[in-house]
Amino acid sequence: MKYLDEFSDPALARRLIDQIHAVTTRPWAMMEVCGGQTHSIIRHGIDQLLPEGVEMIHGPGCPVCVTPLEIIDRALAIAALPEVIFCSFGDMLRVPGSGRDLFTVKSEGADVRVVYSPLDALEIAKQNPARQVVFFGIGFETTAPANAMTVFQARQLGIRNFSLLVSHVLVPPAIAAIMESPSCRVQAFLAAGHVCSVMGTAQYPPLASKYGVPIVVTGFEPLDILEGIRQAVTQLEEGRAEVSNAYRRVVPAEGNVPAMRMLDDVFEVTDRTWRGIGTIPDSGWKLSPRYRAFDAEERFAVGDIHTAESSACRAGEVLQGLIKPHECSAFGKECTPRNPLGATMVSSEGACAAYYAYRRLSLVGAE
Ligand code: SF4
Predict the structure, then answer these.
(1) How far away, in angstroms, is 344 Cα from ligand 1 center?
(2) Does residue 30 surpass a pLDDT of 70?
(3) Measured between alpha carbons, how far is 102 from 234 in angstroms, rounded to an integer?
(4) Residue identifier of the C-alpha nearest atom 3 of ligand 1
(5) 365 pLDDT exceeds 70?
(6) Given a cut of 50, is residue 367 above it in pLDDT?
(7) What's the average model confidence in pLDDT over 123-134?
(8) Strand 267-274 and strand 278-287: pairing?
(9) Residues whose CB is less than 8 angstroms from the CB of residue 35 and which lie 6 or more positions away in sequence, other chains included
(10) Does the beta carbon of 335 lie inside 6 Å of ligand 1?
(11) Which of these ranges, 79-93, 240-254, 334-348, has the smallest mean pLDDT?
């Protein structure tokens, strides 16, 4: 299949692996930011093909995993309201809140619907003028343009019974927060190509320069990731800390200018809490004043939300790259994809789910 087979070519992969081995003289630790990249690395065993001491640290770039518990609990409370049709992508339905998930709320009678686009939710709002339709808008810079477009259209069309429960997060402030952490071991980043396809690469040179880390923009197929690692290791070995784009077929340096204009109009930057990590200043978006009337948090007074994470779950440490999933004592025992204790086991992009799916069940050092 075009763009799949050719980016999984074993001969080209072997050549890139040989080049990485040839250039590496000492241990390095680099973080792939995106959960999609984590999934691909574990699925293809890329981390096991690298020179000894070159470690992939799995970053916090899984949108489902970092959506804060407080927002999940708020979603559960709004979804339970009798006048509400609550719409979401399917992967949010099993994310555990403090006590239950959206599936449970649905089984108790709430009108929770899985949609494939926020525009589907807008259509449901058109067809149900007597109901309130809420779309759960989470994710990084990649999913935000479609959500922004939907709110823009709702305003243009005068559809007042639609609102967005927003929890958008941004990658560059997360990179800064990771580098500021006293326990940070990251020496280079593989930046997420789909985020950069929207936002371009202009936000990264100041980070590379301030923290002295190479940042390589790359994609999700095995050859994309290997080329990203090759470029990052080469920079580290040569003492450089620059931004390079290993995903030029998708990422223009300037990004998607019309999408960025739409985002600027509909959203404004705000502090956001990341599940398992905490509050990162200026790390997310909320609706701008022009669109505030479509903010589900303001429309529905669901009272004080008191959150309680599972005491067994170490997803916060996983998301910060401090432990690997199989170092959590609940991994594969109390916590499985069928019975997840934390969000990193729910989402297909979550590091715990990837380790479980591809049988990385052993402890570090025993692989
Ligand atoms: S294995 Fe389960 S309990 Fe452990 S960190 Fe991952 S999601 Fe949390």
Answers:
(1) 7
(2) yes
(3) 46
(4) 313
(5) no
(6) no
(7) 98
(8) antiparallel
(9) 58, 59, 61, 62, 63, 65, 347, 349, 350, 351, 354
(10) yes
(11) 334-348
Atom of ligand 1 nearest to the CA of 315: 5
Q: Relative to the CA of 351, which ligand 1 atom is closest?
A: 6
> CA dist 309 to 275, 298, 341, Å?
10, 25, 9
Q: Are 122 and 159 in contact (CB under 8 A)?
A: yes
Write down the residue that tokens 């990203």 correspond to: 228
With a cut of 60, say whether residue 364 has pLDDT above it: no
Q: Is 74 in the pocket of ligand 1 (CB under 6 A)?
A: no
Instruction: Name the residue of 320, 328, 334, 347 whose CB sits within 8 Å of the most ligand 1 atoms, as the mutation to test its pocket.
Output: 328
Angle between helices 257-266 and 144-157 (to 10 degrees): 60
Angle at 127 between CA 131 and CA 293, to 5 degrees: 50
Cα separations in angstroms, 336 against 267, 331, 347: 36, 7, 11
Average pLDDT for residues 280-290, to the nearest whole number? Answer: 96
pLDDT at residue 363, as a whole number: 46
What pLDDT sits at residue 1?
A: 63
Residue type, 204: Y
